[in-house]
Amino acid sequence: MKIIVLIARIIQAIFALLTLGFAIAVVNWFNMKSGKASPGAFNVLVAVPLVALLALFYLEVVPRIAPSASHPIPSLVCEAIPIILYLAGCGVAAHFVMRLDTCLGIICTCAKMAPVFAGLSVPLWIFTTILMVKQIFTHGFRRPSASRPAMSQA
């Protein structure tokens, strides 16, 4: 089970970096080349992967280096927040791209790919959230320790 979660986390990080890269390219083009302010939809898609990467840090690194700082409830919140933000960012950016009259070139492709990878991130976050909820219901709110082994059947 741990290897499945680790693989899902790696894919989540890759999708976050891809979403971030495509969204930054669009925001940079708008700010530097078009003379207009970048659309808010892509500003959101710059912020959401950063939040997701911070959540991944809390979910994967903090339990390893500071187990006492890790608790299931904040972990569950860190699992749920990227789902909501990715859904919102994906929907808003996809709506923005859909409203464009003409969409040609590499920036247009980046504008189309950013919401795609944001949308692909949602099922991964839902999957890992379900696994965490299952773990919380199975093991409770405390992590099993060597001094308090789990109860065994008689």
Automatic annotation (TrEMBL):
This is MARVEL domain-containing protein. Residues 5-131 form the MARVEL domain. Keywords: Membrane, Transmembrane, Transmembrane helix. The chain crosses the membrane at residues 7-30, 42-61, 73-98, 104-133. It is a multi-pass membrane protein. It is found in: Membrane. The keyword Membrane applies. GO terms for cellular component: membrane.
